[in-house]
Amino acid sequence: MQTILFVHQSAELYGSDKTLFSLVTKLPKHTIRPIVVLPEEGPLASLLREENIDLIISPIIKLSRSFFSFRNMVKLPFQVVTSLIKLNKKLEHESIDFVHSNTLAVLLGAFYAKWKKIDHVWHVHEIIEKPRILNILYRFLVNTFSKQIVFNSKASFDSLVRHNKKLKNKSSVIYNGVTAPDIVYSIKEINQFKSINLKLPTNAIVIGMVGRISRWKGQSFLLDVFDNLQKENTSVFLLYIGSPPSDQSFYLTHLANKIISKGLENKVKILPFTSDIWKYWSCIDIAVVPSTEPEPFGLVAVEAMYMEKPVVAAKHGGLLEIIQHKKTGLLFEPNNSDELSAALKLLVGNADLRKSLGKNGHKYVSEQFTVEKYVLNFVNLYKSKTHV
Asked: Are 286 and 303 in contact (CB under 8 A)?
Protein backbone atom coordinates (compact mmCIF):
# COMPACT_ATOMS: atom_id res chain seq x y z
CA MET A 1 0.00 0.00 0.00
CA GLN A 2 1.39 3.38 -1.06
CA THR A 3 0.52 6.56 0.82
CA ILE A 4 0.61 9.63 -1.38
CA LEU A 5 0.43 13.17 -0.05
CA PHE A 6 -1.41 15.54 -2.40
CA VAL A 7 -0.84 19.25 -1.78
CA HIS A 8 -3.22 21.65 -3.51
CA GLN A 9 -3.72 25.42 -3.59
CA SER A 10 -7.48 25.86 -3.04
CA ALA A 11 -10.71 24.25 -1.91
CA GLU A 12 -12.81 25.44 -4.85
CA LEU A 13 -14.09 23.40 -7.79
CA TYR A 14 -12.54 24.87 -10.91
CA GLY A 15 -10.23 23.08 -13.37
CA SER A 16 -7.28 21.94 -11.26
CA ASP A 17 -9.57 21.35 -8.25
CA LYS A 18 -11.81 19.04 -10.27
CA THR A 19 -8.93 17.09 -11.73
CA LEU A 20 -7.46 16.54 -8.26
CA PHE A 21 -10.82 15.32 -6.98
CA SER A 22 -11.16 12.92 -9.93
CA LEU A 23 -7.68 11.56 -9.32
CA VAL A 24 -7.76 10.96 -5.57
CA THR A 25 -11.27 9.53 -5.52
CA LYS A 26 -10.67 7.09 -8.36
CA LEU A 27 -7.26 5.75 -7.34
CA PRO A 28 -7.32 2.01 -6.60
CA LYS A 29 -8.11 1.95 -2.87
CA HIS A 30 -6.46 -1.43 -2.30
CA THR A 31 -3.03 -0.20 -3.42
CA ILE A 32 -2.96 3.60 -2.94
CA ARG A 33 -4.06 5.71 0.02
CA PRO A 34 -4.29 9.45 -0.70
CA ILE A 35 -3.94 12.20 1.91
CA VAL A 36 -4.92 15.66 0.67
CA VAL A 37 -3.63 18.96 2.05
CA LEU A 38 -5.74 22.07 1.36
CA PRO A 39 -5.22 25.62 2.68
CA GLU A 40 -8.86 26.18 3.66
CA GLU A 41 -12.37 24.81 3.85
CA GLY A 42 -14.56 24.93 0.75
CA PRO A 43 -16.55 22.87 -1.77
CA LEU A 44 -13.59 20.61 -2.59
CA ALA A 45 -12.94 19.88 1.08
CA SER A 46 -16.59 18.96 1.59
CA LEU A 47 -16.62 16.59 -1.39
CA LEU A 48 -13.39 14.91 -0.27
CA ARG A 49 -14.87 14.25 3.17
CA GLU A 50 -17.99 12.78 1.57
CA GLU A 51 -15.69 10.36 -0.27
CA ASN A 52 -13.84 9.52 2.98
CA ILE A 53 -10.54 10.91 1.71
CA ASP A 54 -8.09 11.80 4.48
CA LEU A 55 -7.91 15.59 4.57
CA ILE A 56 -5.59 18.07 6.27
CA ILE A 57 -6.26 21.81 6.39
CA SER A 58 -2.93 23.59 6.69
CA PRO A 59 -1.03 26.57 5.20
CA ILE A 60 0.48 25.51 1.87
CA ILE A 61 2.74 28.45 0.81
CA LYS A 62 1.65 29.86 -2.54
CA LEU A 63 3.89 31.50 -5.09
CA SER A 64 2.31 34.07 -7.39
CA ARG A 65 3.07 37.36 -9.13
CA SER A 66 2.39 39.20 -5.87
CA PHE A 67 5.26 37.28 -4.26
CA PHE A 68 7.80 39.71 -5.75
CA SER A 69 7.17 42.44 -3.24
CA PHE A 70 9.74 43.26 -0.58
CA ARG A 71 7.29 42.51 2.21
CA ASN A 72 6.35 39.06 0.87
CA MET A 73 9.95 38.05 0.22
CA VAL A 74 10.92 39.00 3.78
CA LYS A 75 8.01 36.96 5.17
CA LEU A 76 8.70 33.86 3.06
CA PRO A 77 11.37 32.12 5.22
CA PHE A 78 9.16 32.43 8.30
CA GLN A 79 6.14 31.11 6.36
CA VAL A 80 8.13 28.15 5.04
CA VAL A 81 9.36 27.10 8.48
CA THR A 82 5.97 27.59 10.13
CA SER A 83 4.08 25.69 7.43
CA LEU A 84 6.55 22.80 7.42
CA ILE A 85 6.37 22.43 11.20
CA LYS A 86 2.56 22.46 11.16
CA LEU A 87 2.33 19.89 8.38
CA ASN A 88 4.98 17.67 9.93
CA LYS A 89 3.08 17.60 13.21
CA LYS A 90 -0.11 16.55 11.45
CA LEU A 91 1.76 13.80 9.59
CA GLU A 92 3.89 12.57 12.49
CA HIS A 93 2.25 9.13 12.48
CA GLU A 94 2.20 8.75 8.69
CA SER A 95 4.71 7.15 6.35
CA ILE A 96 4.54 9.04 3.04
CA ASP A 97 5.79 7.34 -0.14
CA PHE A 98 5.30 10.20 -2.61
CA VAL A 99 4.38 13.85 -2.52
CA HIS A 100 2.22 15.16 -5.38
CA SER A 101 2.11 18.96 -5.70
CA ASN A 102 -0.96 19.92 -7.72
CA THR A 103 -0.21 23.21 -9.57
CA LEU A 104 2.95 25.30 -9.73
CA ALA A 105 1.65 27.74 -7.13
CA VAL A 106 2.08 25.17 -4.35
CA LEU A 107 5.48 25.24 -2.66
CA LEU A 108 4.82 23.34 0.57
CA GLY A 109 4.85 19.90 -1.06
CA ALA A 110 8.21 20.50 -2.73
CA PHE A 111 9.84 21.74 0.48
CA TYR A 112 8.33 18.97 2.60
CA ALA A 113 9.47 16.26 0.16
CA LYS A 114 13.01 17.68 0.07
CA TRP A 115 13.15 17.92 3.86
CA LYS A 116 11.92 14.35 4.35
CA LYS A 117 13.85 12.94 1.36
CA ILE A 118 10.62 11.73 -0.29
CA ASP A 119 10.13 11.48 -4.06
CA HIS A 120 8.22 14.46 -5.39
CA VAL A 121 5.90 14.75 -8.41
CA TRP A 122 5.05 18.28 -9.54
CA HIS A 123 1.82 18.44 -11.55
CA VAL A 124 1.83 21.61 -13.67
CA HIS A 125 -1.52 23.16 -14.65
CA GLU A 126 -0.26 26.59 -15.68
CA ILE A 127 1.29 28.54 -18.51
CA ILE A 128 3.35 31.37 -17.05
CA GLU A 129 5.26 33.40 -19.61
CA LYS A 130 5.21 36.79 -17.87
CA PRO A 131 6.88 38.17 -15.91
CA ARG A 132 9.90 36.40 -17.35
CA ILE A 133 11.54 36.18 -13.94
CA LEU A 134 8.63 34.09 -12.65
CA ASN A 135 9.00 31.63 -15.53
CA ILE A 136 12.72 31.31 -14.79
CA LEU A 137 12.05 30.85 -11.07
CA TYR A 138 9.46 28.12 -11.66
CA ARG A 139 11.82 26.35 -14.03
CA PHE A 140 14.49 26.36 -11.32
CA LEU A 141 12.05 25.16 -8.64
CA VAL A 142 10.57 22.23 -10.56
CA ASN A 143 14.02 21.13 -11.68
CA THR A 144 15.49 21.35 -8.17
CA PHE A 145 12.63 19.88 -6.17
CA SER A 146 11.10 17.24 -8.48
CA LYS A 147 11.98 13.73 -9.52
CA GLN A 148 9.15 13.86 -12.07
CA ILE A 149 7.19 16.72 -13.63
CA VAL A 150 3.77 16.11 -15.17
CA PHE A 151 2.16 18.68 -17.47
CA ASN A 152 -1.54 18.79 -18.32
CA SER A 153 -0.87 19.63 -21.98
CA LYS A 154 1.88 20.05 -24.54
CA ALA A 155 1.27 23.78 -24.30
CA SER A 156 2.07 23.91 -20.58
CA PHE A 157 5.04 21.58 -21.23
CA ASP A 158 6.46 23.90 -23.90
CA SER A 159 6.02 27.00 -21.75
CA LEU A 160 8.35 25.67 -19.05
CA VAL A 161 10.58 23.02 -20.61
CA ARG A 162 11.34 24.48 -24.06
CA HIS A 163 14.88 23.36 -24.94
CA ASN A 164 15.93 22.44 -21.40
CA LYS A 165 17.16 18.86 -21.85
CA LYS A 166 17.43 18.13 -18.12
CA LEU A 167 13.82 19.15 -17.51
CA LYS A 168 12.61 17.35 -20.62
CA ASN A 169 14.09 14.04 -19.50
CA LYS A 170 11.99 13.96 -16.34
CA SER A 171 8.83 15.47 -17.78
CA SER A 172 5.70 13.94 -19.29
CA VAL A 173 2.25 15.03 -20.44
CA ILE A 174 -0.89 13.53 -18.90
CA TYR A 175 -4.13 15.00 -20.20
CA ASN A 176 -6.95 15.70 -17.78
CA GLY A 177 -9.98 13.45 -17.92
CA VAL A 178 -13.66 14.34 -17.78
CA THR A 179 -15.94 12.65 -15.27
CA ALA A 180 -19.34 11.82 -16.70
CA PRO A 181 -22.33 13.43 -14.94
CA ASP A 182 -24.34 11.27 -12.56
CA ILE A 183 -27.67 12.51 -13.95
CA VAL A 184 -28.91 12.94 -17.51
CA TYR A 185 -31.67 15.55 -17.68
CA SER A 186 -34.72 15.18 -19.89
CA ILE A 187 -35.78 17.89 -22.32
CA LYS A 188 -38.73 18.63 -20.03
CA GLU A 189 -36.44 19.07 -17.01
CA ILE A 190 -34.07 21.27 -18.99
CA ASN A 191 -36.88 23.52 -20.21
CA GLN A 192 -38.31 23.80 -16.71
CA PHE A 193 -34.93 24.72 -15.26
CA LYS A 194 -34.32 27.21 -18.07
CA SER A 195 -37.65 28.98 -17.59
CA ILE A 196 -38.07 28.75 -13.79
CA ASN A 197 -34.51 28.96 -12.47
CA LEU A 198 -32.75 30.88 -15.23
CA LYS A 199 -35.84 32.86 -16.24
CA LEU A 200 -35.07 32.43 -19.92
CA PRO A 201 -37.46 31.63 -22.78
CA THR A 202 -37.45 27.91 -23.53
CA ASN A 203 -36.69 28.72 -27.18
CA ALA A 204 -33.73 30.95 -26.29
CA ILE A 205 -30.34 30.22 -27.82
CA VAL A 206 -28.06 30.33 -24.80
CA ILE A 207 -24.40 31.20 -25.22
CA GLY A 208 -22.54 30.08 -22.13
CA MET A 209 -19.17 30.86 -20.61
CA VAL A 210 -18.16 28.78 -17.60
CA GLY A 211 -15.12 29.60 -15.50
CA ARG A 212 -13.48 31.85 -12.99
CA ILE A 213 -14.08 35.57 -13.54
CA SER A 214 -10.59 37.00 -13.89
CA ARG A 215 -8.30 39.29 -15.83
CA TRP A 216 -7.52 36.95 -18.73
CA LYS A 217 -10.50 34.64 -19.10
CA GLY A 218 -12.20 36.99 -21.56
CA GLN A 219 -15.59 37.77 -20.00
CA SER A 220 -15.46 41.45 -20.90
CA PHE A 221 -14.22 40.71 -24.42
CA LEU A 222 -17.11 38.27 -24.98
CA LEU A 223 -19.63 40.80 -23.69
CA ASP A 224 -18.60 43.33 -26.32
CA VAL A 225 -19.05 40.77 -29.09
CA PHE A 226 -22.38 39.59 -27.67
CA ASP A 227 -23.68 43.16 -27.49
CA ASN A 228 -23.48 43.47 -31.27
CA LEU A 229 -24.78 39.95 -31.82
CA GLN A 230 -27.96 40.42 -29.79
CA LYS A 231 -28.84 43.53 -31.76
CA GLU A 232 -29.16 41.34 -34.85
CA ASN A 233 -30.77 38.32 -33.19
CA THR A 234 -33.19 38.82 -30.32
CA SER A 235 -33.31 35.10 -29.46
CA VAL A 236 -29.76 34.94 -28.08
CA PHE A 237 -28.88 35.21 -24.40
CA LEU A 238 -25.54 35.12 -22.61
CA LEU A 239 -24.90 33.17 -19.41
CA TYR A 240 -21.77 33.55 -17.29
CA ILE A 241 -21.19 30.90 -14.64
CA GLY A 242 -18.35 31.48 -12.22
CA SER A 243 -16.96 33.64 -9.45
CA PRO A 244 -13.80 35.70 -9.08
CA PRO A 245 -10.92 34.82 -6.74
CA SER A 246 -11.63 36.03 -3.21
CA ASP A 247 -9.20 38.94 -3.54
CA GLN A 248 -10.31 39.97 -7.05
CA SER A 249 -14.02 40.72 -6.67
CA PHE A 250 -13.48 43.92 -8.63
CA TYR A 251 -13.50 41.86 -11.85
CA LEU A 252 -17.06 40.77 -11.09
CA THR A 253 -18.05 44.34 -10.24
CA HIS A 254 -16.57 45.63 -13.49
CA LEU A 255 -18.40 42.99 -15.54
CA ALA A 256 -21.73 43.64 -13.80
CA ASN A 257 -21.40 47.41 -14.30
CA LYS A 258 -20.53 46.92 -17.96
CA ILE A 259 -23.67 44.84 -18.48
CA ILE A 260 -25.75 47.65 -16.97
CA SER A 261 -24.00 50.35 -18.98
CA LYS A 262 -24.86 48.48 -22.18
CA GLY A 263 -28.48 47.97 -21.10
CA LEU A 264 -28.16 44.18 -21.27
CA GLU A 265 -29.60 43.24 -17.87
CA ASN A 266 -32.40 41.25 -19.55
CA LYS A 267 -30.06 39.50 -21.97
CA VAL A 268 -27.06 38.61 -19.81
CA LYS A 269 -26.92 36.78 -16.50
CA ILE A 270 -24.02 36.18 -14.13
CA LEU A 271 -24.45 33.16 -11.91
CA PRO A 272 -22.00 32.35 -9.11
CA PHE A 273 -19.89 29.23 -9.05
CA THR A 274 -21.94 26.04 -8.73
CA SER A 275 -20.94 22.42 -8.13
CA ASP A 276 -23.99 21.28 -10.13
CA ILE A 277 -22.49 22.44 -13.41
CA TRP A 278 -23.98 19.66 -15.57
CA LYS A 279 -27.51 21.03 -15.24
CA TYR A 280 -26.29 24.36 -16.57
CA TRP A 281 -24.37 22.74 -19.42
CA SER A 282 -27.64 21.04 -20.37
CA CYS A 283 -29.24 24.47 -20.85
CA ILE A 284 -26.40 25.96 -22.88
CA ASP A 285 -26.49 25.78 -26.69
CA ILE A 286 -23.07 27.22 -27.52
CA ALA A 287 -20.02 27.19 -25.23
CA VAL A 288 -17.39 29.90 -25.51
CA VAL A 289 -13.82 29.85 -24.19
CA PRO A 290 -12.53 33.32 -25.20
CA SER A 291 -9.38 33.42 -23.04
CA THR A 292 -7.19 36.39 -23.90
CA GLU A 293 -4.08 34.46 -22.76
CA PRO A 294 -3.33 30.77 -23.48
CA GLU A 295 -5.27 28.19 -21.50
CA PRO A 296 -2.95 25.51 -20.08
CA PHE A 297 -5.60 22.90 -20.89
CA GLY A 298 -9.25 23.93 -21.05
CA LEU A 299 -11.36 21.56 -18.95
CA VAL A 300 -14.53 23.57 -19.54
CA ALA A 301 -14.17 22.93 -23.27
CA VAL A 302 -13.90 19.19 -22.61
CA GLU A 303 -16.97 19.30 -20.34
CA ALA A 304 -18.97 21.20 -22.96
CA MET A 305 -17.95 18.77 -25.70
CA TYR A 306 -18.89 15.81 -23.50
CA MET A 307 -22.35 17.37 -23.20
CA GLU A 308 -22.53 17.63 -27.02
CA LYS A 309 -22.21 21.41 -27.04
CA PRO A 310 -20.33 23.12 -29.88
CA VAL A 311 -17.35 25.07 -28.54
CA VAL A 312 -16.03 28.37 -29.86
CA ALA A 313 -12.54 28.89 -28.47
CA ALA A 314 -9.48 31.11 -28.77
CA LYS A 315 -6.84 29.49 -30.95
CA HIS A 316 -3.94 29.16 -28.51
CA GLY A 317 -2.64 27.10 -25.59
CA GLY A 318 -4.07 23.73 -24.64
CA LEU A 319 -7.32 24.40 -26.51
CA LEU A 320 -5.48 23.57 -29.75
CA GLU A 321 -4.98 20.04 -28.39
CA ILE A 322 -8.69 19.62 -27.62
CA ILE A 323 -10.64 21.27 -30.43
CA GLN A 324 -10.42 20.34 -34.10
CA HIS A 325 -11.52 23.37 -36.11
CA LYS A 326 -14.82 22.85 -37.98
CA LYS A 327 -14.99 19.25 -36.78
CA THR A 328 -15.45 19.35 -33.01
CA GLY A 329 -15.71 23.12 -32.61
CA LEU A 330 -14.67 26.48 -34.02
CA LEU A 331 -11.41 28.32 -33.31
CA PHE A 332 -10.79 32.04 -33.67
CA GLU A 333 -7.69 34.22 -33.41
CA PRO A 334 -7.23 35.30 -29.77
CA ASN A 335 -8.68 38.74 -29.01
CA ASN A 336 -10.13 39.02 -32.53
CA SER A 337 -13.71 40.22 -32.05
CA ASP A 338 -14.59 39.93 -35.74
CA GLU A 339 -13.65 36.24 -35.88
CA LEU A 340 -15.46 35.45 -32.62
CA SER A 341 -18.52 37.30 -33.86
CA ALA A 342 -18.51 35.41 -37.17
CA ALA A 343 -18.24 32.05 -35.41
CA LEU A 344 -21.10 32.83 -33.05
CA LYS A 345 -23.32 34.11 -35.87
CA LEU A 346 -22.65 30.94 -37.83
CA LEU A 347 -23.68 28.69 -34.94
CA VAL A 348 -26.64 30.78 -33.83
CA GLY A 349 -28.09 30.58 -37.33
CA ASN A 350 -27.37 26.90 -37.97
CA ALA A 351 -28.89 24.35 -35.58
CA ASP A 352 -27.67 21.43 -37.70
CA LEU A 353 -24.07 22.62 -37.42
CA ARG A 354 -24.45 23.00 -33.66
CA LYS A 355 -25.70 19.45 -33.46
CA SER A 356 -23.00 17.92 -35.67
CA LEU A 357 -20.14 19.71 -33.93
CA GLY A 358 -21.60 18.70 -30.58
CA LYS A 359 -21.83 15.03 -31.51
CA ASN A 360 -18.32 14.99 -32.96
CA GLY A 361 -16.98 16.69 -29.86
CA HIS A 362 -18.65 14.19 -27.55
CA LYS A 363 -17.20 11.27 -29.48
CA TYR A 364 -13.72 12.78 -29.44
CA VAL A 365 -13.50 13.56 -25.71
CA SER A 366 -15.13 10.22 -24.82
CA GLU A 367 -12.20 8.52 -26.55
CA GLN A 368 -9.31 10.86 -25.74
CA PHE A 369 -10.02 12.49 -22.39
CA THR A 370 -11.47 9.81 -20.14
CA VAL A 371 -10.96 9.97 -16.39
CA GLU A 372 -10.00 6.28 -16.46
CA LYS A 373 -7.06 6.99 -18.80
CA TYR A 374 -6.08 10.01 -16.70
CA VAL A 375 -6.01 8.05 -13.43
CA LEU A 376 -4.27 5.00 -14.94
CA ASN A 377 -1.42 7.18 -16.22
CA PHE A 378 -0.81 8.48 -12.71
CA VAL A 379 -1.11 5.04 -11.12
CA ASN A 380 1.60 3.79 -13.46
CA LEU A 381 3.71 6.80 -12.59
CA TYR A 382 3.41 6.19 -8.85
CA LYS A 383 4.18 2.50 -9.24
CA SER A 384 7.34 3.01 -11.26
CA LYS A 385 10.27 3.69 -8.96
CA THR A 386 12.43 4.08 -12.04
CA HIS A 387 10.43 7.09 -13.23
CA VAL A 388 9.61 8.83 -9.98
From this structure: no
